[in-house]
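Table S5 (text form). Sequence records supplied for joint modeling of the three-component complex.
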Amino acid sequence: MIFDKHFYNVDVTNDYKLMNEDIMIIKNKNFNIKQIADSGQCFRMNPISDNKYSLIAFDRYIELEQLEDDLIEISCSEEDYELIWKDYFHLDYDYGRIVDELINGSDEFLREAAIYGSGIRILRQDSFEMLISFIISQNKNIPSIKNCIERISETYGESYRDDKLNISYNAFPSPNELAKARKEDLRALKLGYRDEYILGASRAVAMGDLDLEKLKVSSHEEAIKALKTIKGIGDKVANCISLFGLYHIEAFPIDVWMKRVLSEYYQDKFDPLRYKGYAGIVQQYMFYYIRHVHGI
DNA sequence: CGCCAGGATACCC
DNA sequence: GGGTATCATGGC
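The corresponding structure-token record, covering 296 residues in total, follows.
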């Protein structure tokens, strides 16, 4: 059976690990890989088979399998889990507390949303990748965003190979790699009018004019202000970058789907400050649920 | 084919 | 300040 001597409890977030070669088993009630993959925050997590997903993040490739509702297998070493994936999946944060609060709260829509998306977590992704990904996202649907990001990675990102899993893949390019791109070559990647925005943002980071590391430790408000100095970044895209790439979980992106929620269910009177400090998580439950309600 | 997409900008009043 | 035409392209 799954719980034998190879597992032991590591912390209060109900988090287990297997002392084995490059396979970790994580136990957590609020960790559902399908929900995360479909929650519109991550564009390089894709299904391989039932309950199994691939993910390219940083310079790594991993596979994730949902073994049970509260059990996920990750194809990584214990060392990589501690150094990279534990932080990436925000596993030191208690999402159960927020889900419980919303489920027991008086807000009908949020109650349903929290039940439906109780396995969502906010991923702590690469800041530059988020910067470019959400510039691309404007006026595009999610499948199209994913295709653009794959083309950018294939063309400008470094190539890697995982021999154990027999997989070749490309990382998302660094700021320097992308800043060296020629505008005509970017145009061939079918990014539309966003290509010059992407070039400008990449150069700003490469030149040090936009310091993403500094914005991680600044306030959310300062991050938004700095991001919006980049041409092609407005309020919504800035909030997505702040939330998914700079880890300011009080960010509250409002896209077309969120506008529907706020208009149809709250008469435009929803106040994110009621959930101060974690409004971004509340926002993800809303976003994921309203798309489901509309059949996506 | 037409409509929409995890919008932003420039330009209008 | 608030309204809106336009942007390039793909998914459905």
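Note: Residues 153 and 201 of chain A are 16 Å apart (CA to CA).
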